[in-house]
Design brief:
Layout (H helix, E strand, L loop, with lengths): L7 E3 L4 E3 L1 H27 L4 H7 L15 H13 L19 H7 L4 H12 L3 H14 L4 H18 L4 H13 L3 H4 L1
Antiparallel strand pairs: 1-2
Helix pairs in contact: 1-3, 2-3, 4-6, 5-6, 5-7, 6-7, 7-8
Length: 190
């Protein structure tokens, strides 16, 4: 696209005009993409796992781009999966068709019901670890989809994620808002 030196560029959301401005914008996008690819592959080559790379790979200020529909950590994950594939080398279970959720009922049974999981999820939420809270409430809600306490904790964790997002990324905001609606009981909605 840069070599074509277009005077107008329509990307589906915006219209860019002027070959010079389009060239600058497209060069920045190209350089940011190359930077993310290179840093992700560098991390992979030293043995960093996907989760660490999603957390640690960031764009320098001069390559920062608006993250309206995608996010840097999502791009890092896509680069990882493009180059390594679906197998993250974390567990033998990744090779087979039984997801971790298959043993969630066992976890509920072993901890003596859902109360302990909800309590621990609440602790995570109170300590500003919303993702850990959501992991645990997902286990409870798979077992008891209408559990009000689990829905309350999950909703609070989702609301924290939404607030922390800065509402900058349209895709993330829409997802979180829908998940918050899904975690709201009929009583609370009225």
């Amino acid at each position: 696209m840069i070599a074509l030196e277009p005077e107008t560029l329509i990307n589906g959301h915006d219209v860019f005009r002027g070959a010079e401005e389009i060239g600058r914008t497209m060069t920045k996008v190209r350089d940011a993409t190359a930077y993310l690819r290179d840093r992700t592959i560098d991390g992979m080559n030293i043995g960093a796992d996907l989760w660490r790379l999603m957390r640690d790979v960031t764009l320098p200020a001069e390559l920062a781009l608006p993250q309206v529909h995608g996010k840097v950590e999502w791009i890092v994950r896509a680069i990882w999966e493009e180059h390594v594939g679906w197998f993250r080398y974390e567990s033998t279970t990744e090779l087979y068709d039984v997801p971790p959720s298959a043993v969630w009922p066992d976890i509920v049974e072993l901890v003596g019901g859902t109360a302990g999981l909800i309590e621990r999820a609440q602790t995570h939420a109170e300590q500003r670890r919303p993702l850990e809270a959501i992991h645990l409430t997902d286990i409870v809600l798979a077992h008891s989809p209408a559990d009000r306490d689990a829905l309350r904790v999950k909703r609070g964790a989702l609301e924290e994620l939404l607030a922390a997002s800065g509402r900058e990324n349209f895709s993330e905001v829409q997802w979180l808002e829908q998940e918050i609606r899904n975690a709201t009981t009929d009583e609370e909605a009225n």
